[in-house]
Design a protein that fits this description.
The protein is mainly α. It has helices spanning 11-27, 32-36, 42-58, 67-72, 79-95, 99-121.
């Protein structure tokens, strides 16, 4: 498995991935409305996502955020939405022409989607 690091891709590669992917997300009939209802400043959101994906792909440490609680608070999510998110993501990474980045990014995207879905579907644990 390819490991994150500066040799995998450039910051420009990460930004291209994020911008292309989220342009697709915004246009998608299934998941676009979920994002549009919650993202009010797309440019700020894109910059946050560039930091997130830079951390996963290049090993940078500038991402500051807590994505899990925000995703868990969205009502009505279905596994088909996560599958569509992954489909659009993999379509985007395939077009970028960087196989090591594609492999690492796709694996990370699957981990992210599965982690959020598992937590979303898990019943709340009652603390005793």
């Amino acid at each position: 498995m390819t490991r994150p690091g500066p040799d995998i891709c450039t910051e420009q590669d990460v930004e291209a991935l994020v911008r292309r992917f989220y342009a697709r997300v915004q246009e998608d009939a299934l998941i676009g409305p979920v994002f549009d209802a919650r993202v009010h400043d797309w440019e700020a959101h894109i910059q946050l996502l560039v930091d997130f994906w830079s951390a996963l792909l290049r090993g940078t440490s500038r991402f500051r955020g807590a994505p899990m609680p925000k995703h868990l608070a969205i009502p009505g999510l279905e596994w088909a939405m996560f599958q569509r998110w992954l489909q659009l993501f993999e379509q985007t990474t395939a077009e970028l022409g960087n196989p090591p980045m594609q492999q690492l990014a796709d694996a990370a995207a699957h981990r992210v989607a599965n982690a959020i879905w598992r937590r979303y579907r898990a019943p709340a644990f009652p603390f005793l």
